[in-house]
Amino acid sequence: MPERILVADDQEEIQDLLREMLAKRRAEVTSVGTAQEALDLIVKDSDAFDLAILDLDFGEGQMSGLACLEEIRKTTTALPVVILTGKGTVSTATESIKLGAEEFVEKDFYLEENMELALMRLDNLIRTTIDNKRLRREREFYREELKGKYNIVGNSPQIQRLIQQIQEVAPIPRPVLIRGERGTGKELVAAAIHHDSPRKKNAFITINCAALAEGLLECELFGQEDNAFTNSSFREGRFVLADKGTLFLDEIGNMSYEFQQKILRVLEYQQFQRVGGSKTLNVDVRVLAATNSDLESEMQQGKFREDLYDRLAFETIWLPPLRERREDIELLCYHFMERLAAEVAGVNPKKLLPETLDCLNAYHWPGNVRQLKYTIEQITYKVEGDAISIHHLPQEILAAFSADTDGQSFTNRLREFEKQLLTEAYAESQGNLEAVARQLSIPLESVKQLVHKHRIV
Questions:
Q1: What 8-state DSSP symbol labels residue 438?
Q2: Which of 278, 333, 343, 445 has its CA 20 to 30 A from that of 293?
Q3: Higher-confidence residue: 179 or 75?
Q4: Does a structural domain hold residue 323?
Q5: Would 376 be classed as within a structural domain?
Q6: Domain carrying residue 65
């Protein structure tokens, strides 16, 4: 994640100099010409920046850098601040430090070199600030996601068993292996386990093991010391960030066989060393892992360690694919529509027409709940009316529904499918049309029309 740095100076040449210098750090720089503009940006969002560089003197009648710093500290104490001055004195430097500045740099001939040195001294603090903000955002995200019953939506027997499993394993301070196809909600289940555990007030840290090369993954998990590599800076590491909390290792099946040994050692001893370091660190971390890989096959081929599998699988939770709990599809659709409407002004939930729901229920959903979510969200914001009909559905869903070995047309297949559902419901309800309406979740008047249309009686 690039550093986000705010520069406030009334001299454009200083702004340009700092912007060019900070670009070498691959930082995202925002420049303003007054202290008041800087303060307004920080008050608006105290997490918007990872470092602020403030000029001391903005000219007559303008807020000074020290006055701005004093106001900033009323909003946040977490933002590191560097004060710049063209006329530095010991008393001014002392006052800026007392007000909460981390560094005091003079705008002289050596400004660029002095700023480089100041930023080197602040590297650890800036990195910690970034990590803490990310951790805070993750906590807020999962706190929002886990409102209600973990926000795991469904009334099917499979989902009820899943919730029961979560409740049973959550208090046990041991690893859990979460398995299932892509898009089934493995990370949400991991968050639910953490949320229902004694560790819920501490950090829930996640990492996708498939998204990083092995060297980067090791640095992300264990951290790295200054200059562990050429021009590399200190990194805390996610095991440390997750201390007393939970670490979720997603796609653990993508780790190399050699790196798995390092993970096994941490699981067994809760000890490790940062990359480039020699000090042994001790942590108390509960590890949850997830994969959609066939670990049994991987172990037979010598690609996944059996001892690591044994250690991770203290309890294994299997997530059902959406096609095995089709009774949850309608509930999920309305849930996702309501969530989107709450997030986007002007978007309202739509009604799913019976034939539309039939198509959704018949589709095999290779991407599972995630695919359903994005499909319904996309349709919901595009449809202008108050109902979603068949012609609003993506072509792949219609094609899957209409495919037939006898070459029947889509209209005929839909008619037969409609008649089959109605006939089965009619038989199960022993001819009670009100019961048929309840079973199919459609109005009684529609049931009467369909019964007449298909000559069921």
A1: H
A2: 333
A3: 179
A4: no
A5: yes
A6: 4-132
